[in-house]
Amino acid sequence: MGLFTGTEQSYYQGSDQGNYQFVSLNDIITNFVIIYVGEDKAISKVKRLDVAFHAQRALQELSYDTLRSEKSQEIEVGPALTVPIPHDFVNYVKLTWMDNSGIERVIHPARKTSNPLAMLQNSAFDYTFDGSGNALTAADSETWGKYKASTVSDSTKEKDSYPEEDQSYGRRFGIDPQFAHNNGSFFIDPIKSKFYFSSDLTNAVVTIKYISDSLATDAEMQIHKFAEEAMYKSIAYGILSARANVPEYIIGRFKRERAAAIRQAKLRLSNLKIEEINQIMKGKSKQIKH
Fold first, then answer.
1. Are residues 154 and 47 in the same domain?
2. Which is the most buried residue in 10, 15, 25, 191, by most CB within 10 A?
3. How many CA atoms lie within 13 A of 66 on its CB side?
4. pLDDT, the chain, mean
5. Is 264 part of a structural domain of the chain?
6. Distance between terminal CA atoms of the chain?
7. CA-CA distance, 231 to 32, in Å (whole number)?
8. pLDDT tens for residues 260-273?
9. What domain range includes position 240?
């Protein structure tokens, strides 16, 4: 019995191309209950709700370093120089801005600035409080205000007021490659859930590539067929390890099987092509004249 349930016309003229390579989380749960649960099987009895919980946890864990869970957003940076973090954001892969040729230019993180919580003070430099005794804070910090108002030349030029250890940058030991660009910079404020950009990225079209946990919507809760076995082993290990009176060797067996299945899924999803590797190795053999 074939797994493809439609016509070729509905597939090629529809909008779900590529979905055949995925299995929905609901199908994973159903298949697990059929194969692993029952008399004389690995798990004698379990509630479907428990299976669903461990399936979501397994999908979340696999999304971080095994599945292709990278997503992207293209957005124009306004005068406020802030962009909200996506709702299913876990961590960023990279941020880029698009030039006139459509080429993506990498935006590097600004590691030496932030938007700290700005405490309001009176003329005696004491904290101020509201009627309920809560400390008052400003909407934005002075640090962010100066960073937003600075230009590229202001943030990269050398100043005599820098500490002695900072004066070696670009002088004594050569320039630091992470600062040898004019693509702008950004930092993240996880408390306010925003990206903050430097002033030279005003009105720039920015692409945010980030890791998702794959649990935001039902449509996203799907698993590549190459990682299907890893999901089953992860669910079984999660259920058995959470139960009492399960022999340790049984838990250890499923733990090893889960690790082996995840490793196999990583290899299958690594998408290594021998011809591409061959081209890279040919490029390595070129001699560069100095």
1. no
2. 25
3. 27
4. 84
5. no
6. 64
7. 9
8. 999 999 988 887 77
9. 20-67+215-250+269-281
